[in-house]
Design brief:
Mean pLDDT: 81
Radius of gyration: 15 Å
Strand order of the largest sheet: 6-5-7-8
Distance between the termini: 45 Å
Shape: globular
Length: 111
């Protein structure tokens, strides 16, 4: 296993995800005769990954896509870019404060 793939896997496990919730790979790029960017695919739905989002933001650039009513429905994790929590809105990435604002979302409320 490549060092960058191993590091991404280790960070995902430290963030609280289980091994069956993600896939990590670093594909070979024939054009440059070297390895490309490490790709992370989250295999679980948003509701299962939601508790790990604050921890993911410590290690990766974590982007949450929301609907117009501010209900989140998709999380993506990127290996390149500054770690932190971002919201994708109107075609732009907007930096967010970690978890404080997302605890108030309707999806996480006890109602």
């Amino acid at each position: 296993m490549l060092p960058q793939t191993r590091q991404a896997r280790h960070d995902l496990l430290k963030a609280g995800l289980k091994r069956k919730q993600f896939r990590v790979r670093t594909p070979w790029n024939r054009k440059v005769q070297g390895y490309g960017y490490t790709q992370i695919v989250l295999l679980s739905p948003y509701c299962r990954i939601a508790p790990c989002i604050p921890n993911l933001a410590k290690y990766f650039r974590t982007v949450i896509t929301t609907r117009e009513d501010a209900t989140p429905f998709h999380v993506s994790v990127e290996t390149d870019g500054k770690p932190g929590l971002y919201r994708y809105e109107e075609g732009r990435y907007i930096p967010m404060e970690p978890a404080d604002k997302f605890i108030q979302l309707p999806l996480w409320s006890a109602e």
